[in-house]
Amino acid sequence: MERLRTVLDPEIGRSIVDLNMVRDIVVDNGNVTVKIALTVAHCPLAKTLQTDVENAVRKPGDVKSVRVDTTTMTRKELEELRARLQASASRSSPPKGGPMVGPGIERLGRRGIRSIIAIISGKGGVGKSFVTSILASELKRHGYEVGVLDADLTGPSIAKVLGVSGKPYKGPNGGIVPLRTESGIKVMSINLVLDDPSMPVIWRGPIVNSVIRQLYWDVDWGELHYLLVDLPPGTSDAPLTVFQSLPLDGVIVVSSPQDLASMIVSKAVNMAKKMNAPVLGLIENMSYLKCPECGETMNIFGEPKGQKLASSLELPFLGAIPLDPAIAKLSDEGRIEEYSNPIIVGIVDELRTRAVKQAEQLTQALPIAVVHRARTIDALLLSHVGVIPSHESFNAGPTAIQVS
Predict the structure, then answer these.
(1) What does DSSP assign to residue 219?
(2) Domain 105-361 belongs to what architecture?
(3) How far is residue 234's CA from residue 229's CA, in Å, rounded to a whole number?
């Protein structure tokens, strides 16, 4: 049982033991069978939870096999779970109204988004948009509902990489409906709004601020486990707006092996710290190239420095992504969702653990699957706890986003 205490429900973010999800454990000559009660039948994250349970039980190495059986909580058990989560949330809910984080800048609410993570870098050209898109794709493969907000207004590339085209439109509730990728990732980018995506965006700071807030707040993201925000490099107006306006749960820093990139990435890290944004860890992209013929590892951009850099900045090192020609091809063709390798899977597993521990709101709402089920029954279990402040309609003048 103690081994299972480290396994967190991928949506609620608490130990499955504390949530009373572990119903039975049978050990027979090194063969372990664990019975888990899911919050909803056919939960899309059931496979992810089963894998986490298997890994936790196998850790010591004295287990021959692990079998995970699942059942479903009864309606009464779900009501009790809702009551416990609401009681916990009421003790830690923030006061009404968004906190002021700068002159005239109000922190926006999160509505149905469980975890908002910004992807940053100090220097351009390190593959930050690729990292954003591949993390979103892998999270989606794990069964999560994922969205990507392209906050790089002057160099938007997310829509192209993820193969999204077309125009967003206003939904029945007046919100902008984001476009979806082949796998169902929700995407919003300024390039999807412009009449001519090849035309440059030449805006000063105040307009950049308003448009980024619109891309987040005026979009109907719906229920999401993760919203990844792809930021432009550096520490200018766009990153500052995201840090001040969005309720970030964490930041991922992307670097590459070059000394210059390593030097400048510290600026982005220090900016995040100054803005009180938790840094979940550092990823080194283009860390090395493995020869497809002989398997030899070649350090094209110098010796990998990710582990050392993360240590010097007192950050967790999430992993090193190799240089792979397939990445460029799939990105150009808008098929990056098809790319995966064990290294990416490992990074996402580490990210899930850190993000779930960091995001307090994951303990303040029932799983998304449960919410959907409640809506179809009697809305009894619909409990996105916490008050979402009302906000003004953000208008940047003639350059504000106009969607019909």
Answers:
(1) B
(2) 3-Layer(aba) Sandwich (3.40)
(3) 15
DSSP 108-143: ---TTEEEEEEEE-SSTTS-HHHHHHHHHHHHHHTT
Asked if 128 contacts 231 with a C-beta cutoff of 8 angstroms, the reply is yes
Longest dimension (CA), the chain: 72
Q: Which residue has the higher pLDDT, 40 or 333?
A: 333
pLDDT, tens digit, 9 for 90 and up, residues 78-131? 888 888 777 765 554 444 444 445 555 678 888 889 899 999 987 788 889 999
212, 174 Cβ separation under 8 angstroms? no
> Cβ distance 120 to 231 under 8 Å?
yes
Whether the predicted model's global pTM rises above the 0.90 cut: no
Which of residues 388 and 160 earns the better pLDDT score? 160
Q: Residue 289 corresponds to which tokens in the numbers above? A: 């190239």
Q: What angle do CA 311, 146, 282 make, to 5 degrees?
A: 10
Domain boundaries, the chain: 1-93+364-389, 105-361
Q: Which CATH superfamily is domain 1-93+364-389 in?
A: Fe-S cluster assembly (FSCA) (3.30.300.130)
Which tokens in the block code for residue 14?
């608490």
